[in-house]
From TrEMBL:
Protein name (Swiss-Prot/TrEMBL): ZIP family metal transporter
UniProt keyword list: Membrane, Transmembrane, Transmembrane helix
Membrane spanning stretches: 6-21, 28-45, 57-76, 96-113, 119-139, 146-169, 175-196
Source superkingdom: Bacteria
Keyword Zinc-finger belongs to the record: no
């Protein structure tokens, strides 16, 4: 499940976008709001206590480094990790910077999944709307179908690959708490940005608030 869920969610999102080409942006926004609060809650409830219990020095610094790292990644990805795409017109070539930064992001996110099974659900729910949004964007931009397929499949395998690396490379185990702290920083930034961007102009929106509360509750009882 740890490997399958994050993989399938991207493949599924890609397929949905290809087959139905969702017109209703509203539902996607709600799913995004839910994924943001669910992911943030899992991070605070599950991941955060564990890294501090490891009693390693400088854990807080690594969390801040994770936040900083994600901010830097978003200079290149323009916010694709939180379902934000910019640009008009057609895209002829694969956007490599976006691709590489999205892959690094997804790979790192896979790291703590082996120890935190709930996070597999969190990442899956977080990457599903992003796969739909990215595929729809690239289809509109008339990106080559093969390049699009390659892009989405690579994105899909990155998180399971990160999980695999954390379990298969014993050398990394020594740094488990520190790398997880970096991932916590990444998740903090991503999920709070998703929640922030889903509430346009800070207007009260009962549907979005409900999705955010639902995300918190689900993370508490899972
Ligand atoms: Zn954004
Ligand atoms: Zn992600």
């Amino acid at each position: 499940m740890n490997y399958i869920l994050p993989l399938l969610s991207v493949v599924f999102g890609y397929a949905i976008a290809l087959l139905i080409q969702p017109k209703k942006k509203k539902n996607l926004k709600l799913l995004l709001a839910f994924s943001g609060s669910f992911l943030l809650s899992l991070t605070v409830l599950d991941l955060l206590p564990e890294v501090y219990e490891s009693h390693q020095a400088g854990i807080g610094v690594f969390i801040m480094l994770g936040i900083l790292f994600q901010i830097i990644l978003e200079f290149f990805s323009k916010g694709a990790e939180h379902g934000h795409v910019h640009g008009h017109g057609t895209i002829k070539k694969l956007p490599w910077l976006l691709f590489v930064s999205l892959c690094i992001h997804a790979f790192l996110e896979g790291f703590p999944v082996g120890q935190h099974h709930n996070l597999a659900y969190g990442i899956a729910i977080h990457h599903l709307p992003i796969a739909v949004i990215l595929t729809t964007f690239f289809l509109d931009a008339q990106l080559n179908k093969t390049a699009l397929f390659f892009f989405m499949m690579a994105f899909a395998v990155m998180t399971p690959l990160g999980t695999f690396a954390s379990e298969a490379l014993p050398g990394l185990q020594k740094y488990y708490a520190k790398i997880t702290a970096v991932v916590i920083g990444i998740l903090f930034h991503i999920s709070s940005t998703i929640i922030f961007e889903s509430s346009e102009g800070h207007k009260f929106n009962i549907a979005k608030i409900s999705m955010i509360i639902l995300g918190i509750l689900l993370a508490c009882f899972i």
